[in-house]
């Protein structure tokens, strides 16, 4: 009847249902949660969670987000701190500062942010990137390299 089994429990087992801000909802303020969070509405403030943050296609956050993983289809403006994987879908629009371990960007996403990536060794590299909203990926480094090649050709 009772068990002393000490195996870790998942969020749903401890009542940590994913939190949602629905499409026609606007919130101003800070949110702290241990469960996953999905935003389909508008949030002007900060989100801190030990779970995953999903910004839906119609979602928008202006502020600071701290999370383990993030999937973004909508818009974000501010500081984004993702300790593992940030996945940007083709409809995503990102502006601001991004700190991440792993980054996945679908063609068509707009990524106008200063990006700092840290690998497994803890050594970080920093770059400023701009991904155009057309198929393919264009970064600020690519633009600088192309202008340097044109100057050498002259």
Q: What tags apply to this protein structure?
A:
mainly beta, single chain, about 150 residues, 13-stranded mixed sheet, disordered C terminus
Could you please describe the fold and organization of this structure?
Strand 12 (110-118) and strand 13 form a beta hairpin. 9% of the residues lie in helices and 51% in strands. With 154 residues, the protein is mainly beta. Strands 1, 2, 3, 4, 5, 6, 7, 8, 9, 10, 11, 12 and 13 form a 13-stranded mixed β-sheet that branches. Residues 7-15 and 121-154 have low confidence and may be disordered. The termini are far apart. The chain has one helix at residues 140-153, and strands at residues 19-21, 26-28, 31-33, 37-39, 42-44, 47-49, 52-55, 60-67, 69-72, 75-88, 93-105, 110-118, 124-131. It contains 1 helix and 13 strands.
- Secondary structure: number of strands: 13
How much is the average pLDDT? 78
Structural Rg: 18 Å
Shape: globular
Terminus-to-terminus distance: 82 Å
Q: Which band does the percent of strand residues land in?
A: over 45%
Q: How much helix, percentage-wise, in residues?
A: under 10%
Structural class: mainly beta
User: Low-confidence stretches at least 5 residues in length (pLDDT < 50)?
Assistant: 7-15, 121-154
Instruction: State the helix count.
Output: 1
Order of helices and strands: EEEEEEEEEEEEEH
The main sheet comes to: 13 strands, mixed
């Amino acid at each position: 009847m009772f068990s002393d089994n000490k195996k870790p429990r998942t969020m749903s087992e401890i009542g940590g249902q994913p939190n949602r801000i629905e499409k026609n909802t606007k919130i101003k303020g800070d949110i702290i949660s241990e469960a996953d969070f999905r935003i389909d509405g508008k949030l002007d403030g900060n989100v801190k969670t030990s779970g995953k943050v999903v910004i839906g296609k119609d979602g928008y956050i202006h502020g600071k987000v701290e999370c383990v993983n993030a999937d973004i289809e909508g818009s974000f403006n501010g500081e984004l701190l993702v300790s593992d994987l940030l996945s940007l879908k083709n409809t995503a629009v990102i502006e601001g500062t991004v700190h991440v371990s792993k980054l996945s960007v679908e063609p068509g996403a707009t990524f106008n942010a200063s990006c700092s990536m840290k690998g497994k060794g803890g050594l970080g590299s920093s770059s400023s990137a701009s991904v155009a909203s057309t198929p393919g990926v264009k970064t600020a480094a690519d633009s600088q390299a192309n202008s340097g090649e044109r100057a050498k050709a002259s």
